[in-house]
Amino acid sequence: MKEATKQVTGRETSPNESERWRELGEVLTTELKIAAARTTISSVPAFLSEHLRRRLWKKDKQQIAEEGRAADGDHTRALSQKLDISKCPDCGGSGMYYPEGYEKGVAKCKHARLTAAEDI
After folding, report:
1. Is there a contact between 104 and 98 (Cβ–Cβ < 8 Å)?
2. Would strands 107-108 and 96-97 be described as parallel, antiparallel, or unpaired?
3. Same domain as 74, residue 109
4. What is the domain extent for residue 53?
5. Mean pLDDT, to the nearest integer, of 31-58?
6. What pLDDT shows up at residue 97?
7. Residues 53 and 71 reside in one and the same domain
8. Domain check: are 34 and 66 in the same one?
9. What is the per-residue pLDDT for 107?
10. Which helix (H) or strand (E) holds 6?
11. Cα(36)–Cα(47) distance, rounded to whole angstroms?
12. Which of 5, 55, 86, 106 fits as disulfide partner to 93, beta carbons 3.0 to 4.6 Å?
C-alpha cells in the first residue's frame, strides 16, 4: 500500500494518515461482514477481492448501460425527426413491433428497414 500511495500521490505516506488507514480498514471490514453474511467463505482475501471487483465493475457496467440507452434514445429521436416513421414497415409508426412473432413479445422499433428503404 505504501508503494501505491507513493505512485498515486507522488509522496511517501505521512504519520498523520494512520487514522485514515484505520478508517479504511474499518470500511473494508464492514463490507466484508455484510458480504460474508450471504455465503460461506474459505479464503477472506480471495473472497473480499472478488467481491469488491464485482461491486466496482457492476457500477461501471450500469453507467455504461445508461450511457448506451441515452445514445439509443438520441439516435431514435434523430431518426424520427428526419423520417416519416408512419411509413415504417415494421411498426407502422407505433414505435413497437414483434421482431420474432407475437409469442416472443414486443421490442422498441429502431426503424432500420425504413432507413434502408429511404436510402434506395
Report:
1. yes
2. antiparallel
3. no
4. 43-82
5. 87
6. 81
7. yes
8. no
9. 82
10. helix 2-9
11. 9
12. 86
pLDDT (tens digit, 9 = 90+) per residue, 56-83? 776 566 666 776 776 565 455 544 456 7
- Give the model's confidence band at 53: pLDDT under 50 very low, under 70 low, under 90 confident, else very high: confident
- Enter the C-alpha cell of residue 68: 448506451
> How far, in Å, CA of 103 to CA of 91, rounded?
16
Name the residue among 100, 95, 63, 99 with its Cα closest to residue 76: 95
pTM > 0.90: no
* Domains contained in the chain, number: 3
Same domain (yes/no): 120, 97:
yes
Residues 115 and 100 in one domain: yes
Shared domain for 54 and 74, answered yes or no, is yes
Residue 89 and residue 77 share a domain:
no
Q: Which grid coordinates are listed for 31?
A: 463490507
Which strand (E) or helix (H) includes residue 20?
helix 18-36
Q: How far is the C-alpha of 12 from the C-alpha of 113, rounded, in Å?
A: 61
